[in-house]
Amino acid sequence: MVLTAIHYYVVSYSITIKFKTMGFSNEQRGGGGKFINFRKGKLVNGGNEFLHFTGTLVDIGVDEGEYEGETYKRITLYMVDQDAKTQPLYHVQAAMNSGYMVAFMSMLPNIDHTKPFEISPGMRKSEDKKKEFATLFINQGGNHIKWYFKSSNEDKKKKFPEPKIVPVGNLKVKDYTDRENYFEKMIVDFLNKKLRKLFPDGHKSFKAAAGTAETTGTTSGKGNESAPPEMDDDLPF
């Protein structure tokens, strides 16, 4: 692979050197199977951590994951490493309400679906420095993709539905059902209007990446649940 550019980002107060190549960071190829998960601001494939992954988005899926007996909605980004000889397909998975996927959905309208892009997870601190929140950065063609949806936008069409506060026993919790439904509609529209025109059969046209971790996951076979989904009940955006 050819090193084409170097970019520097400040993520969790550390300098990260990022290489614009397809596949995993530092010109590595993973080798840990098809699942790519997120853990504390890093990508994880077969137990190995990576700073970023670059690929072409060919499909998006929504299903349910399970962790420690609790179910949650999950988004899977099906991305192909087109630089590799076999063009392996990877399943980039995270909880729908995690900071990673909320950030992805916030940028989705600004992503060019016809070109590869780089995903780089990170952690950022709250204003009082007491909490950390998961987030995601996307670079495409040497440009940082900006958020289309923000809670600070005056235009309601550029804001996600606000969570409802509902009583559960003696507690009051945030209900993100409206936002989840909004995300699912966004994904269906994105698939029908854009991705399906390029990849009519979606991820089924590609062979999943192989590796020693291929068989790991839940008994339902829906994904690799070796790490908690990193839900964020309060996102600073």
Describe this structure in words.
The protein contains 2 helices and 14 strands. It has helices at 99-107, 177-198; strands at residues 6-11, 14-19, 23-24, 35-39, 42-45, 48-50, 53-67, 70-80, 89-95, 117-125, 132-140, 143-144, 164-168, 171-175. Mean pLDDT is 80; it is low at 1-20, 212-228 and 233-237. Strands 3, 4, 5, 6, 7, 8, 9, 10, 11 and 12 form a 10-stranded mixed beta sheet that branches. Strands 1-2 form a two-stranded antiparallel ribbon. Strands 13-14 form a two-stranded antiparallel sheet.
What layout of secondary structure does this protein have?
Blueprint (H helix, E strand, L loop, with lengths): L5 E6 L2 E6 L3 E2 L10 E5 L2 E4 L2 E3 L2 E15 L2 E11 L8 E7 L3 H9 L9 E9 L6 E9 L2 E2 L19 E5 L2 E5 L1 H22 L39
Features:
14 strands; single chain; two-stranded antiparallel sheet; 13% helix; mainly beta; disordered N terminus
Distance between the termini: 36 Å
Low-confidence stretches: 1-20, 212-228, 233-237
Number of strands: 14
**Alpha-beta content class:** mainly beta
Q: Could you describe the largest sheet, including whether it forms a barrel?
A: 10 strands, mixed
In what range is the share of β-strand residues? 35-45%
- Give Rg in angstroms: 17 Å
Note the overall shape: globular
The helix-strand sequence is EEEEEEEEEHEEEEEH
Percent of residues in helices comes to: 10-25%
- The tally of structural domains comes to 1
Please give the count of helices.
Answer: 2
Mean pLDDT: 80
